[in-house]
Automatic annotation (TrEMBL):
Domain of life: Bacteria
Residue ranges of every copy of the Succinylglutamate desuccinylase/Aspartoacylase catalytic domain listed in the record: 31-241
UniProt KW Protease keyword: no
Listed Gene3D superfamilies: Zn peptidases
Name of the protein this chain belongs to: Putative deacylase
Cofactor(s) listed: Zn(2+)
Keywords: Hydrolase, Metal-binding, Zinc
Organism: Hoeflea phototrophica (strain DSM 17068 / NCIMB 14078 / DFL-43)
Pfam families xref list: AstE_AspA_cat
One MF annotation (Gene Ontology) recorded for this entry: hydrolase activity, acting on ester bonds
Length: 351
């Protein structure tokens, strides 16, 4: 494995960021190339734990000649966001410089199929140069994994609908509980930008064998040795199934109760009042229409001081808010409803 430390100059004198990039060399030029990054939202750490276990596994395979495809790994994909603290609180989702979500607004190919990237000396914000560089590192890789997490949630994947069910091997190897299938973009998230570039460069538009996804590795605090190792082993098994690493190519079956639905099925349940949340349902639960899923305590101790939240339809609880204080209108749950919503989401679910 070779490690390179790239420098991203900041916008003002005396500021620079380091991007650590690992390269592993496969022995078979015909095997798929792979790009994996974690912590693009810099406050999402489950993917970093996965990298901690995955990197030695792949190094070992490389040393023993079992690595067929080449890999590029970026465990700290967002050094700019990692450095953003305000009054001791870390803020890794939005850029403090531009207020843009670090996982939105990536450059995508235009109608002419041409993509315009910034380079190291482009006179623009560091985060724009970082975004271009991350995409460049993923170029030419038919397998691209972007490791994220939700607030509190089960493990689930965002998948371009056209790559489903072929990508169910990844969901099965990871033992994921759900997949959201999208076909209308996501405000140019990294996954969408990587996918659009794949599509623009695919011969005859053939995307078979391709895999690009945002993996939501459960919730923000689901970071521990056991879970990190399990997910690293899952990705390793997937890499074997896709012929990147030599070994048993058989992927397991999807777990029982797996939910794979178009994104239009996602019910974003918003808080009807501000206050303190008392949850009555958790990620992974099956809920029925009308079931009490949360109460918001507005006026503690009074009979009418609490607002009930009920499931609008039957479905699968995908995520819920981690903090127990909420504003009116903030997202409380994501539920994958049994029925598609008439005015359902087609792009990114959140800012
Ligand atoms: Zn994220």
């Amino acid at each position: 494995m070779k490690t390179e430390i790239e420098t991203i100059p900041g916008e003002t004198p005396g500021i620079a960021y380091e991007l650590i990039v690992h390269h592993l060399s496969g022995s078979d030029p015909a095997a798929p190339r792979v790009y994996i990054q974690s912590a693009l939202h810099a406050d999402e750490r489950p993917g970093v734990a996965v990298m901690h276990y995955l990197i030695p596994m792949l190094e070992h395979a490389e040393a023993e000649g079992r690595l067929l495809g080449s890999l590029t790994l970026v465990p700290h994909a967002n050094p700019i966001g990692a450095a953003q603290h305000l009054f001791s609180n870390h803020m890794g989702r939005f850029s403090g410089a531009t207020r843009v979500n670090f996982n939105r607004d990536f450059p995508v190919p235009g109608k002419d199929g041409v993509r315009h990237l910034d380079n190291a000396s482009s006179a623009t914000f560091a985060e724009r140069r970082l975004k271009s560089r991350l995409l460049e590192l993923a170029d030419g890789c038919p397998i691209v994994l972007d490791l994220h997490c939700d607030d509190e949630g089960v493990q689930y994947l965002y998948v371009p609908e056209i790559l489903w069910p072929e990508m169910s091997d990844l969901a099965a190897c990871l033992d994921a509980e759900a997949a959201l299938l999208w076909d209308k973009g996501s405000d140019r998230a990294f996954e969408e930008a990587a996918f659009e570039q794949m599509r623009a460069s695919a011969a005859d538009g053939d995307l078979s064998g391709h895999c690009v996804t945002t993996v939501e590795l459960r919730g923000q605090i689901d970071v521990d040795a056991q879970t990190g190792l399990k997910d690293a082993e899952g990705i390793y098994r997937f890499l074997q199934a896709r012929g990147v690493v030599a070994g048993d190519a058989a992927a397991p079956d999807l777990r029982g109760g797996f939910v794979g639905k178009p994104i239009r099925h996602v019910d974003m349940i918003e808080a009807p009042a501000g206050g303190t949340i008392l949850f009555h349902a958790k990620p992974g639960d099956r809920v029925e229409a009308g079931q009490l899923i949360a109460e918001i305590v507005v006026n503690p101790g009074f009979k009418d001081g609490c607002v009930e939240v009920r499931a609008p339809q039957g479905g699968f609880v995908l995520t819920r808010r981690a903090r127990r204080f909420i504003r009116m209108g903030d997202n409380l749950f994501k539920i994958i409803g049994d029925e598609a919503l008439v005015a359902g989401y087609e792009g990114a679910l959140e800012d």
